[in-house]
């Protein structure tokens, strides 16, 4: 989920926290029916007390990578990378993603290239300095990934990204 107002996203049950395969919290100790909007103040900031009370330290770090717009918007669904499809017959597809370790001011960049049978032909991961908003991390990851496949001279026909803001900007 992409957090807008947070009124439709259940803290415990919905996939909304970046940085792990399931997009769920590692530990959640809050009310079962609580929604993400309860963690956001009227000033559109994360409520530090509730966030620290309900989630593990690692979850808090991952939540802090989620940008909150000054202007609330609708929550929206973002496809998880497991939902990404395969390229067609003789094409290659590039998938990439980013993760942040905010207390160390580092991001991790990862990419892989697959063929139509789903076989991984090349993979790359590397650390990078920074502690950016999630869309900035994804854009940085896209830059590193495209640079990498160009150096390998791989004929990529399709790219998939799980960052809606970056994807929308590119497809305008």
From TrEMBL:
<feature type="domain" description="RNase H type-1">
    <location>
        <begin position="95"/>
        <end position="171"/>
    </location>
</feature>
<dbReference type="Pfam" id="PF13456">
    <property type="entry name" value="RVT_3"/>
</dbReference>
<protein>
    <recommendedName>
        <fullName>RNase H type-1 domain-containing protein</fullName>
    </recommendedName>
</protein>
<dbReference type="GO" id="GO:0003676">
    <property type="term" value="F:nucleic acid binding"/>
</dbReference>
<dbReference type="GO" id="GO:0004523">
    <property type="term" value="F:RNA-DNA hybrid ribonuclease activity"/>
</dbReference>
<dbReference type="InterPro" id="IPR002156">
    <property type="entry name" value="RNaseH_domain"/>
</dbReference>
């Amino acid at each position: 989920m992409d957090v807008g107002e947070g009124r439709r996203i259940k803290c415990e049950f919905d996939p909304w926290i970046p940085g792990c395969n399931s997009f769920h919290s590692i530990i959640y100790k809050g009310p079962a029916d609580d929604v993400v909007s309860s963690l956001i103040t009227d000033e559109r900031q994360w409520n530090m007390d509730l966030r620290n009370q309900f989630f593990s330290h690692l979850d808090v770090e991952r939540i802090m990578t989620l940008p909150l717009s000054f202007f609330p918007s609708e929550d929206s669904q973002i496809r998880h990378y497991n939902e990404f499809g395969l390229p067609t017959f003789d094409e290659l597809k590039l998938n990439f993603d980013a993760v942040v370790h905010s207390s160390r001011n580092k991001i991790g960049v990862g990419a892989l290239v697959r063929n139509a049978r789903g076989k991984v032909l090349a993979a790359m991961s590397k650390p990078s300095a920074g502690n950016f908003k999630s869309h900035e991390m994804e854009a940085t990851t896209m830059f590193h990934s495209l640079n990498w496949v160009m150096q390998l001279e791989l004929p990529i026909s399709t790219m998939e990204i799980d960052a809606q803001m970056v994807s929308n900007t590119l497809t305008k």
